[in-house]
Task: structure prediction
Amino acid sequence: MNQKTQDNKKRQQTHLRFALTCTAFAALLFTCIFFVYQLIVPKFFYDNDWPTTSTYCGFYQLERHTADVLFFGSSHAASFFIPQELYNSYGITSYNLGCEQQNLVVSYYWLKEALRCQQPKAVILDCYMLFEYNAKEPLNTAESCTRKAMDFMKWSSVKKEAVKTICALDENQSLLSYYFPNLRYHTRWKGLFENDFLAGRRKTHSELKGYAPLAGYCGDSGFVPFERPDGETKTPMVPLMEAYLDKLRLLCEQNSISLILVKNPSTAQTAEKSAAIRDYSDRHGLLFLDFNEKSLYEKTGYRFETDNHDGGHGNLWGARKVTNYLGHILKDRSLADSKASPQWEQTKAYYKGIQKDCCLTHISDLDTYLFQLKDSRYSIFIASKGDCTSFLKQSSAGLLARIGCRTNLFETPGSAFFAVISGSNITEQTGMEELTTDGTLSDSSVTYEVLSAAGEGNEKSSIFIDAEERSKNCRGLNFVVYQNDTQRVIDSVCFDTGADTNPAVR
Amino acid sequence: MTYTAFGFYLFLVIALLIYYTVPLRIRWVILLAASGAFYLIAYRTGWWIVLLSALLSYGAGLLLQHCTRYRRLLFGSTVILVALPWFFMKNGDFLLGLVFQMPPVFWIVPLGISFYTLQILAYLADLYQGKIQAEKNPAKYMLFLCFFPQMIQGPIPRYGELFPQLVKGHRFDEACFVKGCQLLLWGFFLKLMIADRADIIVREIFEHPKQYTGCYILVAGILYSLELYADFLACVKLSQGSAALFGITLSENFRRPYFACSVKEFWRRWHISLSSWLRDYIYIPLGGSKGGTVAKYKNLLVTFFISGVWHGAGYKFIFWGMMHACYQIAGSLSAPVKERFYRRIQMPQGIKTCLQRAGVFFWVMCAWIIFRADSLTTGLFMLKSMFFVHNPWILFNDKLLTLGLDWKEWCVLTGSVCVLFYIEHKQEQGISIRNVILQNPVYIRFGVYLTAILLIMIFGTYGFGFDPKDFIYGGF
Result:
């Protein structure tokens, strides 16, 4: 009997020891898996045109109950609503939760999630996704974009409900893959890049509060604003999108939030679509602002050629006009109050910098350009091709010296020249032989290689950033401007200093 | 539900928890209930065919034990009745098309029919020969036939070997449990790192035999040989691993077949449970090698003909079986000549072994091309193309990177195959890597397991956008 008890005790001890070992192993395993998941989920920070990850991670960094207005919608919303502009002009605190191809299901659940930490007085929704966008997709937009928007929502009952709904609506999506992201991103190991490894640092970088700045001019796109439609012909909304618009509207009503429907200027908007939204807004007593309608278009002073990036998305200048008009409406109708908030105060300078970056890409005068380049946020690459001094003005040489170039180009006419200016580090060289230099920027995460060669028939120049040729390689002074903060090349231009007007080539 | 499905492991964990919490003497009941539940949850259709076959063989078994008259008739008729469903389901469409030019019929195919049919036939044959006693408890007999970790894809167990383990309740044994987990991990490695990755290229080439010729076929042949082995070995390891968690040891089904120095040896190492079944219940009853050389070769041809038929309907499987029979006959006939040649040139043993292994791999690979091709005609066309179309440049000009795997995937595949052969090389030397790992301190063991899990998780071929492949032998 005694022996049996001892045996049992021994067996129990062995089992206990084994259970403890298993528990320790499981803890270690889950920790490792957690880090792997952090690594493999794709991230879209400010170095991307649509910084979805920055948008949503930044939202969670807002202090509770500080944002009075929230914006939702697709990239049309992300590129048109500037929370900082709204604050600067009207003192209204807002956050843009729009993202690339945000369908109404995602908008609804992100609003629901937002209400867990904010008490907005108004919600502004861009209506682009109410109509058919991608008929092959059950949710009207690409699965990858839905994932982009959902992956960085924090786990809560809202996210559980959201993923359950999304997977029920789209059978190509798997519920398990939201809990075990390796099922969705099992091929990501082939394309991991610095954002994946530096996510912790980059997640905190969300000064633009969801706004995605664009700087291009679309030029003549054939856009013509229309008169307010009579409402007889209407484009039908996608039933699922309309159903979720209803849900979103009811959610706003339940939380005493004013819902404003907006359609930003876009070639995709038609009078029939506008009539459908107007009909919906009239039925439910909502305010609908269609900036494609002639009256509103003119009231905002919008000029499609220079205020639109590509026919659909607004550039900085267009976005400012739309945002300021919305600010006026919000104020006029007392939908939001003016208030000072340190969170929006702190990011004023950053926004100013972004505005400057956008302006830079449209400067065609060399002196003005050089004047703007004096900025510690920029790393500047200059490579000459051919004789760059023939029509170089003294004032330009002076401005080159102002940004850090010590070489006097007039002393060595006809020679090759390059300069790399990054903060206080300046590398420059001039001479008749082929000149090259290389190095790294941004904590060694970006490599560069600059080349300049002079001499009859041997003129060359190139500026490689991360093994990609970024220089225009035209006659004169070729500039490539790298923004250290957003880690993007923001401009590449050549000023032909071999011609008397120094024309710019972009 | 396959061995790689999340649901299978959820089911397994629940079954394990119940198994180890009930008293020892009724643990076999849990196994039976779990097997039944598994069948109904995972497969549903055709359960009544399994049940009928089980009841028929159970009753026949008892009669065979107790009757002294008409035993041969009883044995023969039961064998035919048990084998008929399998025969029709596997070969029905082929025969209907061949004889009556009829379109394919929707047959209800029970789970693991090819495996449990052989299990029953072996049971009946052993009983008939008086090697074993008939099982009196029908529930226990049912458990022997449908033990869920091995029912899907074998191995094909013998009654005397598996039955006592199933009905004996097992205490929780840490070492056995850890070894089971090791086997599961190894199975996942083989399936997700090698088999399913190689299949991307194999599928592309075999589905477009006119587009890909010459060296493409060679590459596809090599990859298919590796894929089939890794896939089948994976399913056996997962099956053995799952059984080991219950304290049950399933028989080995492979012994490093590509290390064989002759085709005869290959068949002693490949799908051992089937080869030994064919040997014990077909080849030896036919007379084996007793009746002289001609009779031996005739028996070989018959045995491999049956092996071909077991693998599937169609001429290609019969041709594949015949190829292996011919390889063995040719090997047997040429053995003295080859030995004399090796002795004369005094070839070092190491080089001789390598050459022999390469030769066996090549011939087996040629047979696998027929086995994998859509039809015998296509298979022969591919073989011809492999030998006569000259395009070795595709091995060097990055064309192989356009078949569905980029260079990173090729690196992972090559690395994984190297790991497989390194481990097999060690096993060939008598070293068990699993035991070596177990003898190390806990932090090293943790490190090895964690690395393996994370590697499979990161580099494995599975998930969104990937068409998950069933185990190849699940189709037999």
Summary: The two ends of chain B are 16 Å apart (CA to CA). Chain B has three domains: 6-172, 174-215+222-250+377-476, 260-372. Residues 260-372 of chain B form one domain.
